[in-house]
Amino acid sequence: MIVNNKEHQWKPNATVAAIIERDGRFLMIEEETPSGLRLNQPAGHLERGETLLQAVAREALEESGWLFTPRGLTGIYLADTQDGDITYMRFAFHGDAVPPASPPRLDEGIVAVHWLAYEDIAAQTARLRSPVVLQCLADYRNGIAYPLQLIRDLR
C-alpha cells in the first residue's frame, strides 16, 4: 500500500540560470560558496510569486548587474548535490543583456563578473558550481533552444 505522506514528500529546489553570450564569450559570475570560489552563470532560486522569466531577469541583475531579457529556454536540468540531500531543477534561459548604466551593487558573495570563452570555462571544471553549468553552455552552443511559449504560469 502506498501512503502519501506530505510531511516527507520529496520536492526539488527550482532554480533559474541566465546564459548570456557576447562576442563569443559568456558572462560568468565568481561566487563564494562553502566549497570555495566557484564559477556559475547568474543563477538562483525561484521566489514565491515570481514567474520563471521574472526570476531569471532578477537573478541576472542581482548577480551581474546586467539587465537580462530571456529569448528562449535552453533546457531543464535535474541534478543532485554531491551528498544527494538536495535535488535542483534548473531552468536555463538564453537571451540578451544590457550593461549596467553605473557600477552595480552585486549580491553578497559575488566577488567578480567575468566574460569567458567556452574553452576557458571547460578548462576549469573543478571551479564550476556544478557540472550543470557546463552542460547548459554546451547545450546552448549546440543550438538547443525552446520557445518561451513552452512555459505556462497558471497561477
CATH fold type? Nucleoside Triphosphate Pyrophosphohydrolase
Helix count equals: 3
What would you call the shape? globular
Order of helices and strands: EEEEHEEEHH
| Weakly predicted, low-confidence segments | none
Strand content: 35-45%
Task: Output the CATH homologous superfamily.
Answer: Nucleoside Triphosphate Pyrophosphohydrolase
Cα(first) to Cα(last) distance is 33 Å
Under CATH at level 1, the class stands as Alpha Beta
Number of separate strands: 7
Family: Belongs to the Nudix hydrolase family. NudJ subfamily.
Subunit structure: Monomer.
Organism: Chromobacterium vaccinii
Keywords: Hydrolase, Magnesium
Q: Explain this structure to me?
A:
The protein has helices at 52-64, 118-122, 131-141, and strands spanning 13-22, 25-33, 36-40, 43-45, 67-80, 87-98, 110-117. The chain has three helices and seven strands; from the N terminus they run ββββαβββαα. The protein has a single domain, classed as Nucleoside Triphosphate Pyrophosphohydrolase (Alpha-Beta Complex), CATH 3.90.79.
List keywords for this structure.
alpha+beta, Nucleoside Triphosphate Pyrophosphohydrolase
Summary?
Its EC number is 3.6.1.-. The protein is an alpha+beta fold and 155 residues long.
Structural topology:
Blueprint: E1 13-22, E2 25-33, E3 36-40, E4 43-45, H1 52-64, E5 67-80, E6 87-98, E7 110-117, H2 118-122, H3 131-141
Parallel strand pairs: 1-6
Antiparallel strand pairs: 1-2, 1-4, 2-3, 2-7, 5-6
